[in-house]
Amino acid sequence: MDGINITLRLERPEDCRAVEELTREAFWETSGICNEHLLVNRIRRIPAFIPELDYVAEAGDRLVGHIIYTRSRIEDDAGKTYEVLTFGPLSVHPGYQNRGIGKALMLHTFEKARRLGYRAVVIFGHPDYYPRVGFRRAAEFGITTADGKNFDPFMALPLYEGTLDGIHGRFFYDPVYDSIDEKDVLEFENGFPPKKKFDPVPIDVLLDRLEADARNAIAGLGLSYLDELKSRSEREISSIPGIDRKTVDIVRGTMLAYGYRWGKERRR
């Protein structure tokens, strides 16, 4: 795996603190408040948590990756429910990112989930990254969010061929994902070493590189910071009037210059 030996294994009780520290590092550099480490802490204590799919990645004696799952459901118009899975946070230490660790954790746990009898995984995630392991837009399966909406970061993966055939409806995840506020995070942070607040990169660094039509199109998205583009797929950006291939390449290059991978993977 890109020159490093990785071991995947179930998380142990003694790993909990190290996993939270890893998650904190992995998500620290975002324009919002990093709350994913507290989310992991809370997920472990809810009935929807699935310990059999709670895996870490080790490089030597160091934890470098982690994935955690919960049970969720799809509910059709008649009120019938279908159990599915949700994972997240999926964390990889910044020093080990882009080396296949996240993909390895997903593929390994997908196979475990199949053996446990689960039918599908539904997530909210990077719209150009997760399709690389088989995710498709949830809209293609007739699945919407709980409030009936759809967008590119909302995706589904059947664990077996056809396991989502004929299943249409709204997706519901555990309330734990909406349970964290800023006060909770600040209180939880008191238990960790102080860390310098991340200063997000303003969207202006991209806007300044664009011609007028493209600049107006991107500005019309209402984004404040560059990293917010991670939730917008290349397909979505390309479909905006005023955006051409040159603009898409500029967006990709600018994101990469600031450490963000964006857009569809290019074959060489």
List the helices and strands and how they pair.
Elements: E1 7-10, H1 16-27, H2 36-43, E2 55-59, E3 62-75, E4 81-92, H3 101-115, E5 120-124, E6 136-137, E7 143-144, E8 154-158, E9 169-172, H4 182-189, H5 204-207, H6 212-219, H7 234-238, H8 245-257
Parallel strand pairs: 7-9
Antiparallel strand pairs: 1-2, 2-3, 3-4, 3-9, 5-8, 6-8
Helix pairs in contact: 1-2
DSSP strand tally: 9
Helix fraction, binned, reads 25-40%
Gap between N and C termini: 19 Å
Largest sheet: 6 strands, mixed
Q: What is the CATH superfamily classification of the largest domain? A: Gcn5-related N-acetyltransferase (GNAT)
Top-tier CATH class of the largest domain:
Alpha Beta
- Mean pLDDT level: 94
**Global structural class:** alpha+beta
**Whole-number tally of structural domains:** 2
User: What value does the Rg take, in angstroms?
Assistant: 19 Å
- What is the CATH topology classification name of the largest domain? Aminopeptidase
The number of helices is: 8
CATH architecture of the largest domain: 3-Layer(aba) Sandwich
Compressed to H and E, one letter per element, the order equals EHHEEEHEEEEEHHHHH
Shape: globular
List low-pLDDT spans.
none
